[in-house]
Specification:
The chain is of the alpha/beta class and 161 residues long. 17% of the residues lie in helices and 33% in strands.
Length: 161
């Protein structure tokens, strides 16, 4: 589904939070949205790999990677696995790699920067907790919408009709 965050902000100005503009689009979808699933981890993507193997229909994985630009949390394997399990997208306060491959995967991906160094695959991190980055607190089961203009967050689903 296509989302227009500018239009959503016009319609719901008093009920949405806008993430600070610090992320860029790396995925094959420029617009995506859904119910938030949260992860907090640092330079380790084992918990991310496990999570994207679950059914992601209608969901967006939001990762607090501590803003690390030293190791990529998202690579083509994780993105491809997420797409195969119907995730709408991944928003990562951290880094990605394999950017030429990511743009061909039918998945929304927003992250800070790219770097060729991958994260280790240990299972260090936490899931389903409140995370805070880009000037907002993001809770599991919030609703998040992203496009090339920005990312907005709402406690309730937004009617886009």
């Amino acid at each position: 589904m296509e989302y227009n965050t500018s239009e959503l902000c016009n319609l719901y100005a008093d009920s949405v939070d806008v993430l600070e503009p610090m992320l860029s689009n790396y995925g094959g979808r420029s617009s995506f949205g859904g119910i938030v699933v949260t992860i907090k981890c640092f330079e380790s993507n084992g918990i991310i790999s496990e999570t994207v193997e679950q059914d992601g229909t209608g969901k967006v994985l939001v990762i607090d990677g501590g803003g690390s630009t030293r190791r990529a949390l998202i690579d083509s394997y994780i993105a491809d696995t997420a797409a195969k399990h119907n995730w709408e997208g991944i928003i990562c306060y951290g880094s990605v790699r394999d950017v030429d491959l990511l743009e061909d995967i039918e998945l929304g991906i927003q992250a800070m920067v790219s770097i060729p160094v991958g994260a280790d695959d240990s299972n260090v991190g936490e899931a389903d907790l409140a995370i805070n980055f880009a000037g907002v607190t993001i809770l599991p089961d919030d609703h998040i919408y992203a496009d090339n203009t920005g990312i907005i967050l709402s406690p309730d689903p937004l009617d886009i009709d």
